[in-house]
């Protein structure tokens, strides 16, 4: 029987019997019962089941003792009993008389079988695969037909057991194989992002096989109905999906769809689905079987590639460079508009044609040779040549390289750029370089002259042509080195500062000041000759290096000589001006090693001379160094204090004595030095006046205080007034009125709230000028108050001449109020008579405050109410709900 017509159990049985070791897989207990039954039925001592496993029959089960000399040929003969009875029961009454038995050797210790009967084991298809045998040690009569039928029946039962066992094993193997295949499918689905699904057209049920967690999806994402399946399809793709399903259900067509699935979180996933339809026996579509693959990455790659290609195409189309591709025959396959313009045609006319259609024979041959070189040598070529298409005056720079597809050279890619203008520019540049070289030579000579002039200017003062600080310092350094080396070189340095020069410069103008400086320089140059050096450091400061003088007396004589040379009047702007110089002197006996130290000490000595009468000179003394340096440094620091914002404004409240309400504040400047801490105004105000900085400080305080008080007044029903001190030097400056007006306008501060304080002694000098300035200031709308009244020896007759608004009683009278009450009463009454308000300064306790209130003094200020405070501290007190007066006095 052929394998194609063999049933499953039979084929499974045959396949199993072909495997060695089959008996180990068969049920021993069942076979044992069958062999025992056969032995009992035939009253035989031995019963066997033999199976054709492999090449030789194998013993599957035995009942009874082992018998020696049983030939396998008997078992095999049972499978095919012989030509007369193939596949039938074989019965041998006496094996001793049977020729098939004679060749077997007996087994020692085992009885020899004499009787043998065996029935074949047939598959359902009739193929013999073994035998059931009964044996006896004694000869017996042949089996009767009934006994043969019984033995065959028992053999059929044995065969059923074999088939059942083998079929079960085969089924288990098939199930295991099916499970392994399903695992393989699940693994493939997980790794490839693929899902298998089916749709039952009748019920609309959907079954999905996919490893959803491996794809980052929950298990419940798998749809179970066609409606749920369509819901996860993107709304824009859903109509196409529905149409495909409907067409498959109605017409049985294949299902093909690229669509987006909506994932949890609002993400879209591109997928590709393919499926086919199952039909029933009548040919009607019943089910759709489909596979869906994740093509999101592929789709994104395609979109990115399309975008990249579009960008590249746009670049090629828009670039001014000519870009083209030729195949191996020289035929144009791609050309951009720039290349088409170069060839004098449109792209459509060029593609599909070669250079022969657009260039002459010689140019065509030249271009072809270059193309063949690129392809034959598989390397790029760059060259310059005239345009080959009818315009030889244009120069083209061309790059050509192999056009490769699938690792094979398919032609040439060319990129050409018109460099005609560039070449023309290069030629023009070469010509220009020649001209430039000539000009450089001329300029070099001029620069050498200029350099010599610059070197001179760098070492000389621009106004006087005297050596400047750099040259003077260099010569002084040389003098120091000579003294260090020889030990006997002597020198002295004079530092000259001209008295009243600033007044002359300010009153007559800078031109007059420069004219005076030129006159001074000329006299010094004429009087101080080599080997000495005269220099101008800047402004009205001059220095003199005297060399070869051995004694202090020699230096003193030289200084007197210089003073005499400067004594005659100078003609400046048609006027005779006489000036004197304060001179500081430093001698070399101080063992200096640095020029700047010599100049420093000479400068200190000059300031010492200024403290004496005008036109004096002073020698530097080491004992004065510490104080002079400190004052000098302090004055130098003062010049930068405003820029460094080192000044601080403190505010002391002014209270109405009647109700202790704060009506105003006085702004007091403090200097917070970064090294020396808080410096008293008594120490730095004179320095500021001496250095001419006091006016800048006055304006800085006025501006800052006006800004702060305006901020405080923004939240007050009754605005605070602001008292600011005006220095005598500033008051003398006629610009003060305009400066005050400008500050008030810039800070938007009401002039009616500003009270300027001036000293009583200022009124006694230049009274006419004072009256004029007071009138101009009060015309702005502000008030003018006398500060520290009672110390300047003014009288009622004097005070009546001046337009004033208030008196501030000096603290010295407050301290003695208990012993001189009449003096205070007189001052208060004087203010009332002149219609001026009065302010008591320096109040330190309740008794003083109450005493002044009883004398009808309107206002008071002092430590009893508050010390001068920073703006933030006073601002906090002004904002307290119980009122600033209570907060200040602690009531």
UniProtKB/TrEMBL annotation:
Residues 308-378 form the PAS domain. Transmembrane segments: none annotated. Residues 489-622 form the GGDEF domain. Keywords: Coiled coil. Residues 631-882 form the EAL domain. Pfam families: EAL, GAF, GGDEF, PAS_3, PAS_4. Residues 422-453 form a coiled coil. Signal peptide: none annotated. Residues 255-307 form the PAC domain. This is Response regulator receiver modulated diguanylate cyclase/phosphodiesterase with PAS/PAC sensor.
């Amino acid at each position: 029987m052929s394998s194609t017509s063999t049933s499953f159990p039979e084929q499974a049985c045959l396949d199993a019997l072909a495997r060695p070791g089959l008996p180990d897989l068969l049920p021993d207990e069942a076979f044992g019962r069958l062999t025992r039954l056969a032995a009992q039925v035939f009253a035989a001592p031995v019963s066997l089941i033999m199976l054709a496993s492999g090449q030789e029959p194998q013993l599957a089960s035995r009942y009874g003792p082992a018998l020696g000399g049983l030939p396998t040929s008997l078992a095999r003969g049972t499978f095919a009993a012989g030509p007369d009875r193939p596949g039938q029961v074989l019965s041998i009454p006496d094996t001793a008389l049977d020729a098939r038995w004679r060749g077997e050797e007996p087994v020692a210790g085992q009885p020899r079988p004499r009787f043998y009967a065996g029935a074949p084991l047939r598959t359902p298809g009739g193929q013999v695969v073994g035998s059931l045998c009964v044996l006896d040690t004694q000869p017996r009569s042949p089996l009767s037909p009934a006994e043969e039928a019984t033995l065959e029946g028992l053999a059929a039962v044995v065969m059923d057991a074999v088939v059942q066992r083998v079929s079960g094993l085969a089924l288990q193997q098939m199930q295991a194989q099916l499970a392994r295949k399903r695992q393989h499918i699940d693994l493939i689905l997980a790794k490839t992002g693929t899902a298998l699904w089916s749709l039952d057209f009748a019920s609309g049920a959907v079954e999905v096989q996919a490893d959803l967690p491996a794809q980052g999806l929950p298990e419940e994402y798998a749809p179970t109905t066609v409606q749920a399946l369509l819901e996860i399809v993107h709304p824009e793709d859903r109509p196409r999906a529905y149409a495909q399903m409907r067409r498959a259900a109605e017409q049985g067509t294949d299902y093909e769809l690229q669509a987006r699935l909506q994932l949890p979180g609002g993400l879209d996933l591109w997928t590709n689905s393919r499926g086919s339809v199952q039909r029933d026996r009548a040919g009607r579509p019943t089910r759709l079987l489909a596979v869906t693959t994740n093509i999101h990455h592929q789709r994104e790659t395609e979109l990115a590639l399309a975008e990249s290609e579009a960008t590249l195409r746009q670049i090629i189309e828009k670039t001014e460079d000519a870009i083209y591709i030729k195949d191996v025959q020289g035929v144009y396959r791609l050309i951009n508009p720039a290349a088409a313009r170069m060839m004098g045609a449109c792209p459509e006319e060029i593609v599909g044609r070669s250079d022969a259609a657009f260039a002459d024979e010689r140019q065509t041959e030249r271009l072809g040779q270059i193309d063949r070189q690129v392809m034959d040598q598989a390397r790029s070529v760059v060259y310059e040549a005239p345009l080959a298409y009818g315009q030889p005056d244009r120069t083209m720079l061309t790059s050509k390289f192999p056009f490769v597809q699938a690792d094979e050279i398919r032609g040439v890619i060319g990129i050409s750029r018109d460099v005609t203008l560039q070449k023309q520019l290069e030629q023009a540049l070469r010509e220009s370089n020649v001209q430039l070289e000539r000009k450089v030579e001329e300029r070099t000579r001029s620069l050498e002259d200029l350099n010599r002039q610059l070197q001179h200017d760098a070492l000389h003062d621009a106004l006087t042509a005297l050596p400047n600080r750099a040259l003077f310092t260099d010569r002084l350094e040389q003098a120091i080195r000579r003294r260090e080396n020889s030990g006997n070189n002597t020198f002295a340095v004079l530092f000259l500062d001209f008295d009243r020069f600033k007044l002359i410069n300010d009153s007559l103008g800078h031109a007059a000041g420069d004219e005076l400086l030129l006159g001074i320089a000329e006299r010094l140059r004429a009087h101080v000759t080599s080997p000495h050096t005269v220099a101008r450091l800047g402004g009205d400061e001059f220095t003199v290096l005297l060399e070869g003088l051995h004694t202090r007396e020699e230096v003193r004589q030289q200084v007197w000589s210089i003073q005499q040379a400067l004594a005659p009047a100078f003609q400046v702007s048609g006027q005779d001006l006489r000036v004197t110089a304060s001179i500081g002197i430093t001698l070399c006996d101080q063992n200096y090693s640095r020029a700047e130290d010599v100049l420093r000490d000479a400068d200190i000595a000059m300031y010492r001379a200024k403290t004496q009468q005008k036109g004096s000179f002073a020698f530097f003394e080491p004992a004065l160094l510490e104080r002079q340096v400190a004052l000098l440094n302090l004055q130098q620091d003062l010049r930068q204090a405003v820029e460094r914002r080192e000044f601080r404004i403190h505010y002391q409240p002014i209270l109405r004595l009647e109700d202790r309400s704060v009506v105003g504040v006085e702004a007091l400047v403090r200097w917070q030095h970064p090294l020396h801490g808080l410096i008293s105004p008594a120490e730095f105000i004179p320095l500021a006046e001496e250095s001419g900085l006091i006016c800048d400080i006055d304006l800085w305080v006025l501006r800052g205080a006006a800004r702060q008080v305006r901020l405080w007044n923004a939240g007050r029903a009754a605005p605070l007034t602001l008292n600011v001190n005006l220095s005598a030097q500033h008051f003398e400056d006629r610009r003060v009125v305009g400066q005050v007006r400008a500050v008030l306008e810039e800070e938007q501060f009401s002039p009616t709230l500003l009270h300027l304080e001036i000293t009583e002694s200022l009124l006694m000098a230049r009274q006419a000028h004072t009256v004029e300035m007071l009138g101009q200031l009060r015309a702005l709308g502000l008030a003018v108050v006398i500060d520290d009244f009672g110390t300047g020896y003014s009288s009622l007759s004097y005070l009546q001449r001046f337009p004033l608004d208030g008196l501030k009683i000096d603290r010295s009278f407050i301290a003695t109020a208990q012993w001189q009450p009449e003096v205070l009463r007189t001052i208060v009454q004087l203010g009332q008579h002149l219609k001026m308000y009065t302010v008591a300064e320096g109040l330190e306790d309740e008794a003083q405050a109450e005493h002044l209130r009883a004398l009808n003094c309107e206002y008071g200020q002092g430590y009893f109410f508050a010390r001068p405070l920073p703006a933030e501290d006073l601002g906090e007190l002004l904002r307290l709900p119980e009122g600033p007066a209570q907060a200040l006095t602690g009531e």
